[in-house]
């Protein structure tokens, strides 16, 4: 009964939208208190501290930092271009490119959200322009981003290894085949759907152009060789590999591609710190939840309950998979939500999605400069978006003409076609969302 109450409470809180860390904390503290065992809460600070301070956990913030640097420094654009040259002419066209790009990027970052936020915007823009259905584009982008946590390096593998004491290196090596099988399965699905709906394929690139795209992407592709080769060859541990990946991505963005400026690096650092804190806080609270479960012998109760249903090992595994899938459906939607937001803001010109993506300091800037409320600013943005798109490179940039504010979306490489024009006016177009005052030139 205690195991059932714990499961219902924990899963119920997650389904209701309570943050994962809060759900785990409330469950542990609530049941300890309800059982009259509040004294055991004295160990909570110690368990939470230990949960997030192991050496292995250092890999998480560095892999997050590396992924954000790649999205901002032009690496993801070159990956997409290389994948497009390789498989763009296959049945399914850009859908296959979408999958291959995620496979390549998964060998660098290890986070689904980094894939969805970085490559996702590039992929969906290209697929929409080519005539793909927007729901299909968003679906394959969200699905392919889940390859990121499977093919090494993988942040979930690092978390699992730290909890159960498994070898991170062995887990990384074990992730290759499942990740590639996922990609093959998605490729077959894209092929069958594209054949049925008549989605376009890209013209086959000449080998000379393919080699040009490959040479252009070599520095980016070397990230995989450095990370996986270094771990496999015993040159450094997975934690050290994360540091090396971050340093290499920083060097590429600043010195090779020259798309990262000091201001951009500081912004990426801030974003990476926030993401790392959220992730590590969940892990820290999970360590206290593990203490609670072990103390109450709940894992034993679960094992006994499953054994009472069936003793067949295969059926037991299926039951466990069913429970995990059921929980994952309700709590693993962040990557898909990120894709939806970028889709609405980029393609549908949805003002509310744009408002959700814009940082708080954007609206502070609008309010201070033009004496408008956030609601008024969102309304104006929705009405005037795309008016000036042609001269700034199509759908990649939008202008709010009344105030002379330009908002640019996408990575620096995406906006190469508009950079020359905007540079003439002293404007800055860089990764993510950027806002500059253009009143003097409108």
Spell out the key features of this protein.
3-stranded antiparallel sheet; mainly alpha; disordered C terminus; 442 residues; 3 strands; globular
Structure commentary:
The protein has helices at residues 2-15, 20-34, 44-51, 59-72, 75-87, 94-106, 112-130, 134-145, 155-164, 168-174, 176-197, 207-232, 238-256, 262-295, 298-309, 313-331, 334-346, 351-357, 360-370, 374-384, 416-424; strands at 397-400, 405-408, 434-437. Strands 1-2-3 form a three-stranded antiparallel sheet. The radius of gyration is 24 Å and the shape is globular. It is mostly helical.
Give a quick summary of the entry.
The protein has helices spanning 2-15, 20-34, 44-51, 59-72, 75-87, 94-106, 112-130, 134-145, 155-164, 168-174, 176-197, 207-232, 238-256, 262-295, 298-309, 313-331, 334-346, 351-357, 360-370, 374-384, 416-424, and strands spanning 397-400, 405-408, 434-437. It is mainly alpha-helical and 442 residues long.
The percent of residues in helical segments reads 55-70%
Instruction: Return the structural class.
Output: mainly alpha
Secondary-structure element series: HHHHHHHHHHHHHHHHHHHHEEHE
Characterize the overall form.
globular
Computed Rg:
24 Å
Give the spatial strand order of the biggest sheet.
1-2-3
Low-confidence parts = 332-355, 382-442
Question: What average pLDDT do the residues reach?
Answer: 75
Could you give a short account of the major beta sheet? 3 strands, antiparallel
Oligomer: single chain
Q: How many β strands by DSSP?
A: 3
Approximate strand percentage:
under 5%
Number of helices: 21
């Amino acid at each position: 009964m205690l195991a059932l109450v714990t499961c219902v409470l924990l899963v119920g809180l997650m389904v209701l939208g309570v943050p994962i860390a809060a759900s785990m904390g409330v469950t542990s503290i609530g049941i300890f208190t309800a059982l009259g065992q509040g004294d055991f809460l004295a160990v909570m600070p110690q368990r939470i501290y230990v949960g997030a301070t192991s050496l292995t956990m250092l890999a998480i913030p560095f892999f997050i930092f590396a992924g954000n640097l790649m999205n901002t420094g032009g690496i993801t654009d070159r990956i997409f271009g290389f994948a497009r040259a390789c498989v763009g002419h296959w049945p399914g066209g850009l859908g296959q490119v979408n999958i291959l790009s995620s496979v390549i990027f998964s060998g660098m970052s290890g986070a689904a959200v980094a894939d969805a936020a970085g490559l996702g915007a590039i992929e969906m823009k290209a697929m929409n322009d080519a005539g793909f259905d927007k729901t299909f584009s968003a679906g394959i982008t969200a699905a392919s981003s889940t390859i990121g946590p499977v093919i090494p390096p993988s942040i979930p593998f690092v978390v699992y290894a730290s909890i159960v004491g498994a070898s991170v290196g062995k887990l990384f090596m074990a992730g290759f085949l499942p990740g590639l099988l996922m990609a093959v399965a998605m490729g077959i699905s894209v092929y069958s759907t594209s054949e049925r709906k008549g989605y376009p394929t890209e013209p086959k690139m000449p080998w000379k152009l393919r080699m040009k795209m490959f040479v252009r992407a070599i520095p980016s592709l070397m990230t995989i060789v450095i990370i996986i080769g270094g771990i496999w060859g015993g040159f450094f541990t997975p934690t050290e590999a994360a540091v090396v990946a971050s340093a290499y991505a920083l060097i590429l963005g600043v010195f090779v591609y020259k798309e990262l400026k000091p201001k951009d690096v500081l912004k990426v650092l801030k974003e990476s710190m926030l993401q790392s804190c959220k992730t590590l806080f969940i892990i820290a609270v999970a360590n206290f939840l593990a203490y609670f479960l072990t103390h109450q012998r709940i894992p034993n109760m679960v094992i006994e309950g499953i054994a009472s249903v069936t003793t067949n090992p295969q059926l037991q595994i299926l039951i466990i998979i069913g429970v995990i899938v059921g929980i994952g459906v309700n709590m693993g939607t962040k990557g898909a939500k990120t894709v939806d937001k970028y889709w609405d803001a980029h393609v549908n010109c949805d003002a509310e999605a744009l408002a959700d993506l814009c940082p708080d300091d954007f609206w502070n800037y609008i309010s201070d400069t033009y004496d408008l409320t956030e609601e008024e600013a969102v309304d104006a943005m929705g009405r005037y978006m795309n008016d000036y798109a042609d001269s700034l490179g199509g759908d990649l940039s939008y202008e709010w003409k009344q105030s002379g504010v330009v908002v640019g979306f996408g990575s620096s490489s995406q906006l190469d076609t508009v950079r020359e024009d905007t540079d003439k006016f002293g404007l800055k177009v860089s990764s993510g969302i950027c806002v500059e005052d253009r009143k003097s030139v409108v």
